[in-house]
């Protein structure tokens, strides 16, 4: 005998692992959007626009929250108590966890960063859906693992970022990454030609107005090339405020410490198997005075990983960077 209950169609049971994936995506969407926007603006270092950044940051995060709430609400098991509050709670917890992780690891739009910063959301989703001791152990193990691996992972990504910088700019060797580091200038250009590294400098941002005193004028140029040659016979790459030019080091006067100068804020230094030139555009306030220029080039040294971070492009420029940043 066929009853009404037996004639009722069976409802397909949703796979719990599929629910974990959907709920994990829902939680990761706002957090990854938020940390990506924050990372991009920090890399741009646009001073004076903090309020605009805060508004854009909030709007983009809220735009990602709406589809995340829809996905999360449908993915949560119907038997869970207070089901309507769980999806917003998951998104809020994941936002806090992701930004906390960003204090330990710099976020870059590479595969490894996306997977690492999205991991907390999927672990939390597993706890909500599976509700087992195994899921709780997975949360504890993930937190401990991220804390233990944070510093080694950060060091590895810094080295990958340097290699990505070399590949993206055409600079043949890390030994050439010796930019003049000074409080008076910021690097606004870096490139190579397969033989040397070229650094272009502009005045530092005005701390009061948030703008550049002389605009983004090319105020100084440094080149670093391997090997020694005649310091007086090679042209120097310089700037006239708008364009890069070549000038002669005339007169060429030797000074102590492997240094030559022309007495007009142009110097050649031969040290550590490298030839380093530094030329300041005439009339520019950058690196004020010949003494400061001389001191800057004499103090040159290999840049550290943290110092190189300001030179790196935000988006990876090689397959290595796309995978490991």
Structural class: alpha+beta
**Fraction of helical residues:** 40-55%
Q: What percentage of amino acids are in beta strands? A: 15-25%
Order of helices and strands: HHHHHHEEEEEEEEEHHH
User: What is the number of helices?
Assistant: 9
Described by strand count, sense and barrel closure, the largest sheet is:
7 strands, antiparallel
Low-confidence stretches: 8-13, 205-215
Provide an overview of this structure.
The structure is a single chain. The protein has 9 helices and 9 strands. It has helices at 4-7, 16-44, 50-75, 83-102, 111-130, 133-169, 289-298, 305-308, 319-324, and strands at 185-192, 197-203, 220-226, 236-239, 244-247, 253-255, 259-261, 266-271, 274-280. Helix 2 crosses helix 4, helix 4 (83-102) packs antiparallel against helix 5 and helix 5 packs antiparallel against helix 6 (133-169). The longest helix is centred in the middle third of the chain and has 37 residues, at 133-169. The radius of gyration is 27 Å and the shape is elongated.
What's the short story on this structure?
Helix content is 48%, strand content 15%. The longest helix has 37 residues. The chain is an alpha+beta fold and 325 residues long.
């Amino acid at each position: 005998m066929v009853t009404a209950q037996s004639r009722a169609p069976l409802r397909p049971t949703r796979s719990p692992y599929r629910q974990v994936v959907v709920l994990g995506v829902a939680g990761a969407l706002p957090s990854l959007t938020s940390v990506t926007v924050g990372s991009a603006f920090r890399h741009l270092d646009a001073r004076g626009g903090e309020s605009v950044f805060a508004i854009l940051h909030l709007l983009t995060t809220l735009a990602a929250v709406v589809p995340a709430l829809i996905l999360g609400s449908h993915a949560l098991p119907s038997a869970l108590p207070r089901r309507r509050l769980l999806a917003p709670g998951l998104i809020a917890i994941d936002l806090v966890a992701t930004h906390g992780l960003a204090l330990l690891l710099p976020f870059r739009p590479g595969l490894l960063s996306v997977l690492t910063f999205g991991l907390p959301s999927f672990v939390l989703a597993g706890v909500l859906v599976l509700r087992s001791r195994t899921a709780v152990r997975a949360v504890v193990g993930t937190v401990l693992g991220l804390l233990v691996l944070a510093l080694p992972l950060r060091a590895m990504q810094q080295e990958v970022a340097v290699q990505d910088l070399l590949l993206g700019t055409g600079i043949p060797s890390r030994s050439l990454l010796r930019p003049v580091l000074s409080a008076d200038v910021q690097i606004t250009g870096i490139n190579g030609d397969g033989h040397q590294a070229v650094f272009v400098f502009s005045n530092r941002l005005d701390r009061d107005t948030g703008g550049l005193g002389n605009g983004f004028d090319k105020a100084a140029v440094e080149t670093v090339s391997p090997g020694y040659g005649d310091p007086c016979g090679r042209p120097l790459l310089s700037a006239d405020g708008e364009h890069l030019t070549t000038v002669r080091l005339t007169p060429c006067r030797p000074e102590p410490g492997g240094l030559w100068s022309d007495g007009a804020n142009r110097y050649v230094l031969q040290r550590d198997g490298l030839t380093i030139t530094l030329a300041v555009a005439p009339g520019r306030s950058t690196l004020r005075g010949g003494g400061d220029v001389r001191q800057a080039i004499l103090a040159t040294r290999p840049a550290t990983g943290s110092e190189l971070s300001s030179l790196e492009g935000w988006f990876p420029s090689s397959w290595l960077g796309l995978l490991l940043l």
